[in-house]
Amino acid sequence: MILCCGEALIDMISEPTASGAIGFVPHTGGAVLNTAVAMGRLGVPVGMLTGLSSDMFGQQLIDALKASHVDTTHVIISDRPTTLAFVQLSDGHASYSFVDENTAGRMLLPEDMPDQLPAVSALYLGGISLACEPCADAYAALLHRHGSDRAVMLDPNIRPDFIKDQTRFRTRLNRMISRADIVKVSDEDLDWIIPGAESEAAKASVLLQAGPSIVIVTRGSDGAHGYLADGSEVSVPVKPVEVVDTIGAGDTFNAGVLTELSRAGHLTKSGLRGLTVESLQAAMELGADVAAVTVSRAGAEPPWAHEL
To answer: Does the N-terminal peptide bond of residue 114 adopt cis geometry, omega within 30 degrees of 0?
Structure first.
């Protein structure tokens, strides 16, 4: 089973009401939940490790995970509130305002992390959970405890507004990157992690030298580029679709990549170290296929396998 570790929250998406005023409708969301749901719908054995509330929004999230065949064994329930992300859309692009203080997801501690993960073969970590403390330290501890003998994919999904102590965040993130096998970043993430005028390829090379076997850089409408430790490169264009909104695009891209690598038997540390250009191309192409369906409809609504 692939275990997705990080935030599950409620996206409060703005919609006009009958009176004409703008209201907010609760949708399941969170970068890591979106990835888990997408993999569950694609038929991959997947689970979720996160902190959820016992409130009505927490129940909505549990129901959504189960409906998409995501294992909830490692979900940690508390009576703290659910994280809410108020989303406003402009020309299909989302901007967020988060309500996250003292929430069930954010307040996870290193000691809350499981000592054993007997059924887990790979870890996926990412999202705002890597920036918000104390849960960021909890997920870093999880990776330190369980990442040495499992394949690890990391998507930092940098949101500068969440980073209160940049030095502390960079130190923790750099340690996590060194333990990851796949690092997926947007072009904006890459420029934040490695500031300067160097080329994308040069910056990807710096990340590869830190430890990962694969670096994938997504470029929005310009597609994605993959870099292997041996110097090989792969480019995948976006699929031509009419974009409704971009919510969950990167998250479902990650799900497609992990799904193909898992099905092909490459989702191990040794398998990723020896990955071929052709195998990385296939994984990124499935990522692009899944993301294309997601952006063609409202909200983070990943496709089921039969829709591809």
So the answer is: no
